[in-house]
Specification:
Blueprint (H helix, E strand, L loop, with lengths): L2 H4 L3 H21 L3 H11 L5 E4 L3 H15 L4 E4 L1 H5 L11 E6 L5 H4 L2 H6 L3 E6 L5 H5 L2 E4 L15 H20 L4 H6 L2 H9 L14 E3 L4 H11 L3 E5 L5 E6 H10 L13 E2 L10 H11 L3 E5 L5 E6 H4 L10
Parallel strand pairs: 1-2, 1-3, 3-4, 4-5, 6-7
Antiparallel strand pairs: 7-8, 8-9, 10-11
Organism: Desulfobaculum xiamenense
Pfam family, one: CBS
GO molecular function: arabinose-5-phosphate isomerase activity; carbohydrate derivative binding; metal ion binding
Length: about 325
């Protein structure tokens, strides 16, 4: 660290930057008026998509606003104004609503496409720091997100101004959650990765089969075992000794290999055909650990045993993935 760097009170400078950002948010909060309500009503009544557009730092903030709206029940996407001017405006429909962002309101690339948006039938909400700007003039509704100063010591880099736009976008999204009666269940449907993460952090005992699980004594005949395997519905039959301790497993794959290998005597004890010492799990391990074992061994069912080796449950891949509740495509 240089002597010059040591001379500065970095904590004070950091706090000053945050104070300026907070000051900017208070400014924007104080300027909320009927325009915010009009914008909310327009977005809430939108039967198409919310098209968010901007360039530079405003574009980056716009992408985040689009992501927040989409994940909370308001279909949205980001449109780069330059790409829009070169053909991407063709994806727009009259029922869409545009949310255009520019702190100065004089961004040429953005303002150049606004008349076309209007000609396509879109209503335009402008988010700008200057209510007398070109963007404001071309917009149907104007949201003033201007701040007195930036947190940047040079007063040049968009800092407090982009924070203000981001926060105003969050305010719209928060209100639209209530407007659309968007619930936790709706949020979960749009976040399958989040739902999956919750399931995989659970203990195996919370997800495993215990009642009516496919299990039999290893002394039963192969024919009896096949009936139990077929009725079990998990594609595997857990086998135990007379004391209930897990000793092996018979799977659909085992049966297929037996049939392909030649004649099978259904009267013989299943112990002659089962796989001994297969993978098993403890009830207190996480579902994620079991999924790792399934993936590494290319299996879909794992028996669950306690500390004494007693069979207490079985868990299937679908138990880990939500039994049809997770959706990875639309």
């Amino acid at each position: 660290m240089t002597p010059k760097a040591l001379e500065r009170d970095w904590l004070a400078l950091g706090r000053e930057a945050l104070d300026i950002e907070i000051e900017g948010l208070r400014e924007v909060r104080s300027k909320l008026n009927g325009g915010f309500v009009e914008a909310l009503e327009l977005l809430g009544a939108c039967t198409g998509r919310v098209v968010i557009t901007g360039i530079g730092k405003s574009g980056l903030v716009g992408r985040k606003i689009a992501a927040t709206l989409s994940s909370t029940g308001t279909p949205s996407f980001f449109l780069h104004p330059v790409e829009g001017a070169h053909g991407d405006l063709g994806m727009l429909r009259p029922e869409d609503v545009a949310l255009a962002i520019s702190n100065s309101g004089e961004t040429d690339e953005l303002n150049a496409i606004l008349p076309t948006l209007r000609s396509l039938g879109l209503r335009i909400i402008g988010m700008t720091g200057r209510s007398d700007s070109t963007l404001a003039r071309l917009s149907d509704i104007v949201l003033d997100c201007g701040v007195s100063r930036e947190a940047c010591p040079l007063g040049l880099a968009p800092t407090a101004s982009t924070t203000a736009v981001l926060a105003l976008g969050d305010a719209l999204a928060s209100c639209l959650i209530t407007w659309n009666r968007f619930e936790k269940e709706d949020f979960a449907k749009r976040h399958p990765g989040g739902s999956l993460g919750q399931r995989l952090s659970a203990c195996v005992r919370e997800l495993m089969h215990t009642h009516g699980m496919p299990a039999a004594r290893e002394s039963v005949s192969l024919g009896e075992a096949l009936i139990a395997l077929n009725e079990g519905g998990l594609g595997a039959l857990a086998l135990t000794d007379e004391g209930g301790r897990f000793t092996g497993i018979l799977t659909d794959g085992d049966v297929r290999r037996l049939l392909c290998g030649g004649s099978v005597n259904p009267e013989a004890a299943v112990s002659a055909f089962m796989t001994r010492n297969p993978a098993c799990a403890r009830p207190d391990v996480s579902a994620a650990e079991v999924l790792d074992v399934m993936e590494s061994r290319q299996i879909t069912v794992i028996p669950v045993v306690d500390g004494e080796g007693i069979l207490v449950g079985m868990i299937h891949l679908h138990d880990l993935l939500g039994k049809g509740h997770l959706k990875f495509s639309v």
